[in-house]
Amino acid sequence: MDPDKQQVDSAHVESTPVTTGLEDAKLAQSRAMQNREHDIAMKIAIAKYWRSMGYCIFFCMSAVLWGYDMQVNGGLLAAPQFRAVFGYTLPDGETILPARWQAAFNMIATVGGMIGSLLCGPLSFYIGRKSNLALACVISSGAIFLQFFAFHRGVLLAGKLVNGIALGMFLVTACAYCSESSPVAIRGLTTALVNFFVVIGQLLGNCLIKAFGDRSDTFACRIPFAFQWFFPLILFSGVWFCPESPYWYVQRGRIEDAKKSLQKFQIGGNVDQWLYEIQETVRMEEESANSAGYIDCFRGTDLRRTLIIFGVWTINSFSGVNFVLSYSTYFFEIAGLPTSHSFDMGVGVTAVGVVGNICSWYVINVIGRRSLVPGMAVLTVIVFVIAILDVVPGYNHSIAWGQSALIIVWNFFYDLTLGPLGYVICGEMSSTRLRSHVVSIGFFTQNLWTLIMTITVPYMINPDEGNLRGKTGFIFGFFSIIATIWTYFYLPETKGRSFEELDHMFEQKIPARKFHTYRQRTEE
């Protein structure tokens, strides 16, 4: 970089040619608007931008299907009629499912999610967020059809795989749309709603399996499959009434369409200034690079941004979420609860997650993204305590109850910090030019780690393998320490920053711990 440029303290001087007086005035107004948005109260921001909030909530509803699919898998495997259709009967009359097929059933949607995430990057870039959501709805509807009418294992696995592709597309699209269609003041809140609806989906999955899992006919498993049709139908019907991402329009030179889109997101206010800010962001990024593909995500300053997103989804798995939540019912059973009551407690765990997500809205908008640092510290302590209790002499039902209680507490803090913040950071950290590609890489990483944990954790915890039980917490406690240290040194604070400001700060290589205090000059 030219040494003279390094001394410039403005976001625009590096790449902006000599401006006219009118452009200078727009620049000053844009920065003044940014400064006002930094400190606006959440309640006022929601009242001011309720239309933007509503459209983002609609897109986030697609995340329900991801959480629902995750949760319904385990419940179906426990349903007698599901085992009767897809398993085989032993001489004593008991029906079981082949272990290899169970593993494939649990993992196949995750593989589909990895494929869908990578497909969504270039697709969303070319056809837009609305069309991408509509396409995912069509794919999901067809996949649900396969699952509903499946009476052979291969057909069911094919349906799960194809549906996983749609689920990956849903998450990428929702995250990208919320980050691009929300003003700075509510951007964290709208992207956090993706995780909120994931947890809602988990809760719905638990409830439907509880309601229909004991039926004596094949509808015990077919009704939970059929329920999924409800959401693609609503989303496909309503997406055409939503405005497209204004960033997507500006990137294609459709300025008037972008302005019309912004007018739908905001009642009153200065839409021209919001549009000008978007144009400036897109112009600066296009001047720094003229291509947008997966390779570009690993070049220049975009490499750092991509690695941050990769790191956030990695520490999500390092926290032990696959161990703590996936095996919560296991601990409840050890505590002496009947299997049916253990399932009820599982519903309670997801309900606590909903409460944690609601509380996270305050944390994200008031404290900021680096609230993940103390959040990771708390999760680390809890998972270590779960492990320590497992080696206490005279392990009994009371200690197992203590572990069960800690699982619920852990889940609350997970959904208060790490759970929703993963989606917020994924939506904010990428450059506008590469957002669909970088977000796709983020969710590919999430699915990859989920796949790895789905394979390895059973070998750690099961009595016929590692037999570590709760002592598995020592392994994830160690990983959580590494994750906490990484978060402290490498996670920037992006609360209240426009994408234009973030582009400048990454270009200037501001250290992560100084993002919060960094200030640009508002005058030239």
From TrEMBL:
Localization in the cell: Membrane
Residues of the Major facilitator superfamily (MFS) profile domain: 55-495
Keyword flag Membrane: yes
Membrane topology designation: Multi-pass membrane protein
Gene Ontology CC terms: membrane
InterPro entries, A to Z: MFS_dom, MFS_sugar_transport-like, MFS_Sugar_Transporters, MFS_trans_sf, Sugar/inositol_transpt, Sugar_transporter_CS
GO MF: carbohydrate:proton symporter activity
UniProt keyword annotations, A-Z: Membrane, Transmembrane, Transmembrane helix, Transport
Pfam families: Sugar_tr
Bilayer-crossing regions: 49-68, 103-126, 133-151, 157-177, 184-205, 225-242, 307-325, 345-364, 376-395, 407-426, 438-461, 473-491
Keyword Membrane: yes
Record-stated family: Belongs to the major facilitator superfamily. Sugar transporter (TC 2.A.1.1) family.
PANTHER family in the record: ALPHA-GLUCOSIDE TRANSPORTER, PUTATIVE (AFU_ORTHOLOGUE AFUA_6G11920)-RELATED, PLASTIDIC GLUCOSE TRANSPORTER 4
The protein's name in its UniProt record: Major facilitator superfamily (MFS) profile domain-containing protein
Native organism: Penicillium cosmopolitanum
Lineage: Eukaryota, Fungi, Dikarya, Ascomycota, Pezizomycotina
